[in-house]
Write a structure and sequence with these properties.
By secondary structure, the protein is α+β, with helices and mostly antiparallel strands. Helices cover about 15% and strands about 30% of the residues.
């Protein structure tokens, strides 16, 4: 591979030679400098009652644009007994971001509505090109409920 080809692949966010799929089928961080540099970024969603940390685990245009918006304040609400959602101040630039097969514990971006969602009940939900994976979290439903109804500060913490 020529240096120009390698540079072009790196600039487009293509996985480096050391990237390997995780057990969930999602890519993991690469050891190639400059590739997947946002993977592992920790984002905290904090209300007066609780906080939930999300780990960015894919380097996609949507994840990058989400991080560029921070810090911000959102309000979350229940949706369909499946997720806690909040609308962003603007739609994310998601071009080139792959769709996903959501799993419990995923923070997603739903393209048509321009909202984030903390999925906690994905039973029966399949792959969708309209649902973009942003990161993962580890919090029970009771903790997610404490994010609802008030201001939630969203910021990078690590």
């Amino acid at each position: 591979m020529t240096a120009v080809s390698l540079l072009a692949l790196t600039a487009c966010g293509a996985p480096g030679p050391d990237a390997a799929p995780a057990a969930s089928g999602r890519p993991t961080a690469s050891t190639t400098p400059g590739v997947n540099e946002i993977v592992g970024t920790m984002v905290r969603f904090s209300s007066k009652a609780t906080s939930v940390d999300v780990t960015i685990d894919q380097d996609t245009p949507a994840a990058r644009d989400f991080l560029s918006m921070l810090p911000l304040t959102l309000t979350f609400e229940e949706f369909a007994g499946r997720e806690k959602i909040s609308y962003l101040p603007r739609k994310l630039d998601h071009g080139g971001s792959p769709g996903s097969h959501p799993e419990d514990g995923d923070l997603i971006y739903f393209i048509p509505w321009g909202n984030l969602g903390f999925y906690y009940n994905t039973a029966g939900i399949g792959h969708s090109d309209q649902t973009v994976h942003i990161g993962t979290y580890d919090a029970p439903l009771e903790q997610l409920k404490r994010l609802e109804g008030g201001d939630v500060t969203v910021e990078v913490v690590g």
